[in-house]
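User: Run a structure prediction on this.
Assistant: Running it now.
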Amino acid sequence: MLNFFIKALVALFTIVDPVGLVPVVLALTVGMLPHERTLVIIRATIIAGIVIAVFGAFGRFIFTSLGVTSEAFSIAGGALLFVVAFDMLFGRPSGARETRREAREALTREDVSVFPLAIPMIAGPGTITTIKAFAASLVYKYDEVKGGTFSTGDAGSTGSSNAAFKGKFSEIGLYTVYNF
């Protein structure tokens, strides 16, 4: 269990990149007093922690009820990341346009703790996907020890054995990565 915790902590630390968030936080909270900045950071951390915990516990059910598979979520997140990275690589401005009113509101916005700090900077698609994968592998390991069966959470699935679950994760490459 300690091995699982350390691997999860390292993976989340890598994906969230708290060291890389420092300049972003400083830029978003410029002009704030130190205690105000501390409150924004604490609020963002608590909100992101709640989002991550909810998706860790109920992510499979949330996505299944919305009809979104893990594969679709990963593909959409990868495509979005590719488009943003491609634009950044060639120095192109974003395709999103803002009105003058939106620009004024962005400059006068005081609370940045929910957006953009908590979501998507801390609890973004990468963090949510990682926590879902770790939660699934933890459920698999628990079920393997107990010797039972459980549903994989796919729409239309009534239940499967551990071998089928392991096979499903092997198909999409998650089981081999998160094999604890």
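Residues 2-177 form one domain.
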